[in-house]
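Let's practice the habit of predicting before peeking. Look at the sequence and jot down your guess about where helices and strands might fall. Then scroll down.
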Amino acid sequence: MRILFVGDVVGKPGRTLLKENIRKIETQWGPFDFRIVNAENAAGGFGLTEKVMNELFDIGFHCLTSGNHVWDKKEFLEVLDSEQRVLRPANYPPGVHGQGYGLFRSGNGINILVMNLQGRVFMPPIDCPFRKAEEIIESVKAEVVVVDFHAEATSEKKALGLFLDGKVSCVLGTHTHVQTADEQILPKGTAYITDVGMTGGHAGVIGMDKFGVMERFLKGTPSKFEVCKNGLILNAVVVEVEETTGRAVDIVRIYDVYEK
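Done guessing? Here is the structure:
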């Protein structure tokens, strides 16, 4: 089974880039049995809307994962409750909107569990992602298990990867928007990368126009962040998994530059 996972899509520049080049990626790396994209920054750089969600589904994605910004558009919270293909981090406490994992079925009948988790280092103090991952794995059976770990700290991401090695097919880091060059198959067969990266404008600061970000660092005062439209790059990974064992056999980074 070949899985495409696209790194955090930021705003309209990221969505347009993805829409215009998804077929090229499919031709070069596919065909894909399952497509996932982290979409928590897809609407204006912060959050998600129903319109943007449908736009991503229309270009062929089976599941949208997210992170701490999934709560930014309040009107989307009701959609989270009803749309099973959009995930928020599973380790938020009981009572929040949405679902943290989804069980999907591939075209040839393979069960795919997609789990969304959020880190706690330098992030809001929510429930333990390690224990939540174990709980979900024990309660939901699937041949292939994909984990989007939306976290800040490299150490926490690698620790979760090793903790889940052999229990899931892949642990793919998101959130920091900078692709890391440490893609690997862990000793027990789990594909791992610390951060898949970002799809959108790389000429600014992690997807935002550089001027607003620099003003905040220089003056320490609030400034408005605008989505960066330049330096368009698409970041993703392709993971190949044995359907019978759920073990990953290969992980390849995609770093496609469309505008320098």
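How did you do? The longest helix spans residues 11-29.
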